[in-house]
Amino acid sequence: MSADFVARLIGMIVFSILGVYLGTHLGRLANETPSEFVFSVEQYAFTIGMVGALIGLILTPYLTTRPIKSLRMQLSRLSTRSLLASLIGLIVGLIIAALLSFPLSLLPAPFGQVMPFIGVLIMAYLGVSVFLTRQDDLFSMVQGFSRGGAAGAEGGAPMAERTILLDTSVIIDGRIADIARTGFLPGSLLIPRFVLNELQYIADSSDTLRRQRGRRGMEVLAQLQKEPGIPVRITDLDVEGVREVDDKLVILARQLRCPILTNDYNLNRIAELQGVTILNINELANAVKSVLLPGEMLQVRIIQEGKEPSQGVAYMDDGTMVVVENGRDYMDQEINVVVTKVLQTAAGRMIFARPERENE
């Protein structure tokens, strides 16, 4: 039984009772001057009571449960830091309003009765808005005092305390275990329960490839948890009113003020539009690939034909594609090539080269 249904029943009963009382009152007023076309008191009470029951059945959720749900959803989107800053600002505003209430009450009527109440509203609003706007400065100052200033000046503590949210795609990818093992991800790795549920759903899929990817993700998580130097935490934090995992991750990252580790292109774009920091493994992989300049020498093995009739394709150890002009004649051979051009694309870095013998 939903809350809306219970609210409709209660509203129907309450509004019908109010309608009966209103109808009885109107019926008595109408029957003070009896007429042939005037309804009786009972008819007034019954008719208006039924109208009240209908109004209560329709409008009660919009007056009770719907606003409460909307308020809860809005509050769930706020971070704990924002809520705490708002609460502190409200308390400070109310204290200032209490101090001002006595001098304001000494004003001549009617200002002496009205201004204290208006002062409470104004100071409460100003306190919440000011503290909410300057929350970062406030908490930075508090953290600086708690660390005695030394740790804050060095900048090591904030990085050690940083939390990184993991996306399902980056867990399935598997490279996160090796990256975290190198120590390039300071802080703790946080995995929400809804990400684990999605990973389990993939692991239980009827499709063989999806099932294998899901099970590989489970194995990667098991490896991460066994590493003593990699703190991995599972959290039950969830976002109410949101079904998509990507949307939940973005909202949770905004609440916790932490980055998301992913290699999902769509999640990357959506998060960037909403001001959430993204750590993309694919961008990291492209960044650490070896940098080559035109004229440098490489030794590669031609393994397949290119799109053009004379081209051959090879791959470096890091997966970078090398397109060799006139390389089809050297199929399945290791040859020395000279780099002619390096092209950076959305999919990664591509190198164009030609065999060394042609340059001779």
From TrEMBL:
Gene3D superfamilies registered for this protein in UniProt: 5'-nuclease (3.40.50.1010)
Keywords, alphabetical: Hydrolase, Magnesium, Membrane, Nuclease, Transmembrane, Transmembrane helix
Cofactor(s) it depends on: Mg(2+)
Pfam families reported in the protein's UniProt record: PIN
GO molecular function, a single term: hydrolase activity
Domain TRAM: 291-352
Residues passing through the membrane, by range: 5-24, 44-63, 83-102, 114-133
Recorded superkingdom: Bacteria
SUPFAM superfamilies associated with the record: PIN domain-like
Name of this protein: TRAM domain-containing protein
Source organism (scientific name): Anaerolinea thermophila (strain DSM 14523 / JCM 11388 / NBRC 100420 / UNI-1)
